[in-house]
From TrEMBL, chain A:
Domain of life the protein comes from: Bacteria
Occurrences of domain ABC transmembrane type-1 (ranges): 114-322
Topology term for the membrane: Multi-pass membrane protein
Transmembrane helix keyword on record: yes
Protein name: ABC transporter permease
Keywords, sorted A to Z: Cell membrane, Membrane, Transmembrane, Transmembrane helix, Transport
PROSITE patterns: ABC_TM1 (PS50928)
Annotated SUPFAM superfamilies: MetI-like (SSF161098)
Automatic annotation (TrEMBL), chain B:
UniProt keyword Lyase, yes or no: no
Membrane-crossing residue ranges in chain numbering: 43-68, 122-146, 158-177, 189-210, 241-261, 297-317
Keyword Transferase on entry: no
Taxonomic superkingdom: Bacteria
Descriptive protein name: ABC transporter permease
Keywords associated with the record: Cell membrane, Membrane, Transmembrane, Transmembrane helix, Transport
Main location: membrane
InterPro entries hit by this protein: BP-dependent_transpt_permease, MetI-like, MetI-like_sf, OppC_N
Membrane topology: Multi-pass membrane protein
Amino acid sequence: MFAYIVRRLFAVIVMLLVVTLVTFGIFFAIPKLTGTDPASLYVGKQADPATIEGIRQKLGLGQPILEQFWHFVTGIFAGRDYTGGGTSDHCPAPCFGYSFRTEQAVWPVLTDRLPVTLSLAGGACVIWLLAGVSTGVVSALKRGTRIDRAAMVTALAGVSLPIYFTALLALAVFNNQLGWTKAEYTPFGEDPGAWFSGLVLPWITLAFLYAAMYARLTRATMLEVLGEDYIRTARAKGLTERVVIGKHAMRSTMTPVLTILGMDLGALVGGAILTETAFNLPGLGQAAVTAISNRDLPLILGVVLIAATAVVLANLVVDLLYAVIDPRVRLS
Amino acid sequence: MTAPLPETSPADPMDVVGDAPAKAIEGRSPWRISWMRLKRDKWALGGGVVVLLLILVAVFAPVIVHLLGHPPNDFHEDRINAFDGMPKGSLGGINSDYLFGVEPTNGRDVFSRVVYGARVSLLVAFLSAVVAVVIGTVLGVIAGYFGGWIDSLVSRVMDALLAFPQLLFIIALISVVPNELWGLSGSGVRMAVLIAVIGFFGWPYVGRIVRGQTLSLREREYVEAARSLGAGRRYILFRELLPNLVAPITVYATLMIPTNVLTEAALSFLGAGVKAPTSSWGQMLSRAVQTYEGDPMFMIIPGLAIFVTVLAFNLLGDGIRDALDPKGSR
């Protein structure tokens, strides 16, 4: 078990290095190929050549890509100093560089934005797991009935609706027409009530999409599991239906649900881009979209890295949880 | 997003066979049996009809717009209220001349733009699915058949790609792509890049399934038999393995198209899709963000267009899956 975790953690680190290298390569190499100078992105096109040269010196943009990459990676762990043009700045670890646009350090921007995205993803996740899994189980048990059909039609519609469309509809109805909610983010520490009421609509919108996906998945898996021999055995030895479903069938049903949950949560923590954009929530996803339209390479790199880390770590946690949930899985 | 879920078909496969006229026992190919199952699935057929209609709309967009609409990029300021920029008349300016109303502020014909939007949506969705299926099948078969270090390499690459924050990455990638590329310019470049990038990030999903299938098929007796009869690698790959992969690949490809429609629309919504003035549904929705309070129809119509398209493909895809794979063996 311990060896397994160490091996997986090592793989995680390698994976993150690869993702960083590729991202770094794309955002620093492609502008080079197409003749856009990253240094001029930093100071604007009108700046005089001397200023651009100074910035290039200071940020090390003239160095070979691999050398820049090395400085970037060591900066994350040890911090780094930017010297040149007569000034010197120290960027403490974890240093993700400075935004090209706002000249703020990237790391504080990321840590500012992360709680918003975590609040959104976490709250929605609770709702969609409760709603999606229970709908799926009920649908599977009542297979072929009206309840099942109604649930599955709703679920199919749910997975076919673009989330930004649902979001706009929800805003139009609940915010503007009825005035029930106020779509505005307030930090939890400031006012928990406002935090909650500002997030209710985004939560439900996001959860509706995922609940639909999870209901379909749970129903399909449950039906498959119910046909297994061990379920028949469990029934044959006189266990109550409650124990057969709740204990024996649920365990295997949760395995694929958990796999998907890991991937989905990981991806969402990296920024629920569409939901945040539609509801104007100042999370990581929104930061990424702004950064991209501003061609703010260091900030893009920061968000991509956070997102990739979240996905990889979530997958690792899921693999570890397998061993707990599914008695057939033993890690070695 | 709508990965094929192993769902058992509502109709028991035995029913289908039992319902067939009992006059004579005739041999039916597996494809024929699947087609019969599909024909009985009303939802899937409905989806199929809508898909067919959408394809026709996309192909004949210029004709349809000529007959029923106005050129998609023409401004009709006379249809707009000067004081708030909203369309004249109720429901976003819907009348017999402007079937879906007009766009706020510039008065472009929404019907024409929705019709032309179908072209972008379907073209990008189809071609990127083709890209994903081709790369995924080739690499999946290679990984599954040869195994060893090749398998490890391909599998690791797939894992790495799946760990990428895809949407984010696609937008970022599109933002650094130059305006002229591969002899194309303007919206052509964007479409080509969209197809390439969406397809590229889609192949690991296909690759995983194909690899798994190949792994299990490789050990089957009939492959063993072919090999012991002296069949070459080429024969086994193309004659023994590939035909058995067609079913899962078809199912996956059909279910990938709606996902791609959603991705293209999402990218356009975020401003990383085709460039104006080429119209796309996602782009219309992103414009509607500013105006939906005054003119909800301009938000509802493109939103419904995406919804109907995605729903139709999902219904058809679910139906094809159930027809080809009634036990849900995957």
